[in-house]
Q: What sequence folds into this?
């Protein structure tokens, strides 16, 4: 008789959950900062926009499209040399951060760009007619005026990142996704599979509800 | 005597979109006098918005030059432009308030971007909130305000830098007629207090009649006519006058040789002159059409009058009538 029951592996589950949260906590903010930077740049340098740089825009927008078109699993493999060179290993949650950031920043950049394009042109012209600098236009007008839309985009991208950690887990990053495959699937503990999925659902719900509540609280600022 | 705050010399503006050039302004020469309440009127697409956008630096002219207080706008560097834009503010048709900021922060914004300390800019903003009548609204967001209240915020925001010129881009076109009047009254009051020049673009002759002392008519990128309302109504032939004091006189029966089209600048006393004239020259008269409009607060009348001899055998000497009327400072339109 095998004395092992699914409860035996619960400590491993908690460790895996901590790894997942760690990956989201590090990769999430990196994606948001990088995506806001790239997205705002795309918005500003687009043809007909505030400071058009058509050649640079074309280059950047192509890079973003290429980034978005590579399936995440393949991106992880492609990035192995870079991950090893920077982190020193290709295994574990720290190693997963680089593919997560590079994999999800392009999509978030595109979301940011489209949110910024939604801003009423009149408000931007009003700000320009007051003599704002480029820096003030970005940080005092563009980003604050589109904050609700940006929150929505952040919610979408963080939920995507949660999914990404699970995929990365399957190729050695650890975390709940890895745990579900290893213990739930390969060792036939249906309970552990259920707990893993349940944990992912809870994380996604927490992110989505936080985003929704925050956006609703700002409804009069739109 | 003439002290223009703006002087536009041979100003043209051409837009190139999709390889076709459209001329929005075509060789415009214009002097705008300090202290004027100027209405720039024209149909949509006439170029009046473009003209305003040249003045608040949202566009640069393709040719020609614009001088503000003798200073060429094209010669301004970044710092100079910022300084200029604190002297020339704009309010907009759709208000263009920042939705993520409170009324107080919206109004204080032009000072915030100029690095004025918080306490100082809020104090100044509260002063203006009172001037535009929005007490108790300083913590509200724009989405919680009515159109008229939003434009009051827009006006306060424009005035916080203490500008010399207030540009109004169809500022009342999104408001109902009642609110339009209160906003125009507010502008006139504030103009009296602060002494700025108002340049207002509009397609509404009602707005010009109600608020402006000077008008510019612009059509297809060219200036058709310029003048103070007082000058304009004294011109024998004037497109501006025909818009300001329109008269229905197209029917053939209204256009005999004995019919004169008259403008009474002081209708309260001058209209009596018609009976005096009839008595003095032995004529009868009838009014074929007419109206009294207020230009600013002053009523001006335009009547179409037909003169007939009292005795059937005689003729009306139209030249004599004309001279008599002109002597009484009544404008006879061509």
A:
């Amino acid at each position: 008789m095998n004395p092992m029951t699914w409860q035996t592996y619960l400590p491993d589950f908690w460790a895996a959950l901590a790894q997942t949260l760690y990956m989201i906590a590090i990769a999430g903010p990196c994606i948001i900062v990088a995506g806001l930077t790239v997205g705002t740049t795309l918005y500003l340098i687009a043809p007909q926009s505030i400071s058009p740089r058509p050649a640079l825009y074309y280059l950047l927008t192509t890079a973003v499209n290429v980034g978005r078109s590579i399936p995440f699993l393949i991106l992880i493999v492609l990035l192995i040399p870079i991950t090893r060179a920077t982190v020193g290993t290709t295994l574990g949650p720290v190693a997963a951060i680089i593919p997560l950031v590079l994999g999800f920043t392009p999509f978030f950049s595109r979301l940011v760009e489209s949110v910024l394009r939604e801003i009423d042109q009149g408000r931007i012209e009003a700000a320009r007619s007051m003599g704002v600098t480029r820096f003030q236009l970005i940080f005092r007008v563009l980003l604050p005026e589109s904050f609700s839309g940006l929150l929505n985009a952040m919610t979408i991208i963080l939920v995507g990142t949660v999914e990404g950690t699970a995929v990365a887990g399957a190729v050695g990053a650890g975390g709940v996704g890895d745990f579900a495959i290893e213990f739930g699937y390969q060792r036939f503990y249906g309970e552990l599979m259920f707990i893993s999925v349940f944990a992912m659902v809870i994380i996604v719900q927490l992110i989505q509800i936080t985003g929704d509540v925050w956006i609703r609280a700002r409804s009069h600022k739109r | 005597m003439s002290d223009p705050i703006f002087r536009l010399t041979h100003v043209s503006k051409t837009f190139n979109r999709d390889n076709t050039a459209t001329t929005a302004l075509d060789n415009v020469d214009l002097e705008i006098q300090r202290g004027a309440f100027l209405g720039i009127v024209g149909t949509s697409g006439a170029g009046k918005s473009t003209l305003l956008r040249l003045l608040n630096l949202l566009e640069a002219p393709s040719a020609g030059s614009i001088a503000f207080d003798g200073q060429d706008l094209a010669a301004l560097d970044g710092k100079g432009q910022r300084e200029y834009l604190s002297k020339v503010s704009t309010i907009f048709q759709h208000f263009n308030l920042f939705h993520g900021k409170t009324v107080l922060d919206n109004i204080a914004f032009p000072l915030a971007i100029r690095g004025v300390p918080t306490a100082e800019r809020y104090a100044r903003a509260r002063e203006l909130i009172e001037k535009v009548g929005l007490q108790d609204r300083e913590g509200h967001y724009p989405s919680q305000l009515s159109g008229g209240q939003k434009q009051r915020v827009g006006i306060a925001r424009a005035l916080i830098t203490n500008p010399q010129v207030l540009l109004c881009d169809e500022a009342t076109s999104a408001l109902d007629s009642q609110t339009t009047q209160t906003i125009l009254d507010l502008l006139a009051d504030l103009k009296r207090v602060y002494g700025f020049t108002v340049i207002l673009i509009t397609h509404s002759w009602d707005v010009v009649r109600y608020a402006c002392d000077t008008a510019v008519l612009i059509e297809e990128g060219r200036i058709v006519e310029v003048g103070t309302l007082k000058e304009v109504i004294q011109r024998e032939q004037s497109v501006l006058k025909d818009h300001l004091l329109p008269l229905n006189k197209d029917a053939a029966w209204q256009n005999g040789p004995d019919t004169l089209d008259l403008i009474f600048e002081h209708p309260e006393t001058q209209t009596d002159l018609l009976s005096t004239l009839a008595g003095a020259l032995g004529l009868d008269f009838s009014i074929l059409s007419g109206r009294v409009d207020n230009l600013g607060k002053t009523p001006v009348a335009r009547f179409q009058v037909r003169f007939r001899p009292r005795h059937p055998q005689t003729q009306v000497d139209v030249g004599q009538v004309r001279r008599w009327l002109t002597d009484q400072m009544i404008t006879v339109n061509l």
User: Anything to note?
Assistant: DSSP finds ten helices and no strands in chain A. Chain A has a mean pLDDT of 91.
